[in-house]
Amino acid sequence: MRIIRNALWIILLATISFAQGTKRIAIGPYLQNMSSESVTICWSTLSGESRITGPDGKSFQVPAFQQHQIRLARLQPKTTYQYDVLGDGSAEGKGSFTTFPRKIEPFRFAVLGDTRSRHKIHQKIVNMIIKQKPMFVVNTGDLVGNGDVIQEWQTFFQINHELMRNTPYFSVLGNHEKDSKNYYNFFDLPGNEHYYEHYYFFSVGDALFIVLDSEGPEHQTPEYLKGSDREAFWEKIDLGYLEKEKAWVENVLTLNDKAGFIFVFFHKPLFSVKRSRVAETKKRRKFWGDIFERHHVQVILNGHDHHYHHAFSGGTHYVTTAGGGAGPV
Ligand SMILES: [Fe+2]
Q1: How far is the CA of 23 from the centre of ligand 1 (A)?
Q2: Domain map of the chain by residue range?
Q3: What is the pTM of this model?
């Protein structure tokens, strides 16, 4: 009798461990870099877990992920495809996507920003977006609290799981991404001739979408700099990067002067109602000058200030949409 009971326990334990071991995908699948004829499907598997212990003896585990991507091309425009990245018929690898239309026709897209904290609010907004069935989503930056913390990306992708497996998601670099390798590993975005995936454009019908990087590379502050020296350092360190980007935008806008609609996205806004940020927005407006107005950009969408704000100046709408979860401060 005892032998039978022990045997049953062994079978039960083996079944449980088999069931746990059968989950093959840790993150995703999710859709990236959609066009009228191509898309990238991404997913991650867990490749290991490291234990880190501090001097107080307290330890924590850090997961490592292996990133997988398949790029599909020669697809039909405005066509729905089903996919199964594991190819085993199980639900975890499945999703579907619809390629962008080639013809000019009405469509909807969703924009949110600063999803980095208050995950319950982020989840609520994601659920609302799913109901609206947008053609794609743009996040105006600060997707996570600290781009170098891998667990924050796990949370981000958990919240967005149902949305991103069926809806293409385009992202903007925010200051909280910290120019982290994690960002570039997880996302597959179009590039430019200077910096792959930092700033880019894509189109749907006759609408042009330009995604810019208002942040630049992540630098460490030299410890010996204080006061005004420190301020001058931060004002000048990214100038070369931003000048290159500005020349690129000028070129892109000139080449696309036939576009019917132009939307530009970047993280830090050109207009702010936050008293502490008014001065820096003036500097930003001085840097960009009349480039957007001159090229008849209809809408500029930003994040960083955690609320909704709309301004209209020189024929361009300036929308701050950053109520994705981050707190009021
Ligand atoms: Fe920000």
Answers
A1: 35
A2: 102-321
A3: 0.91
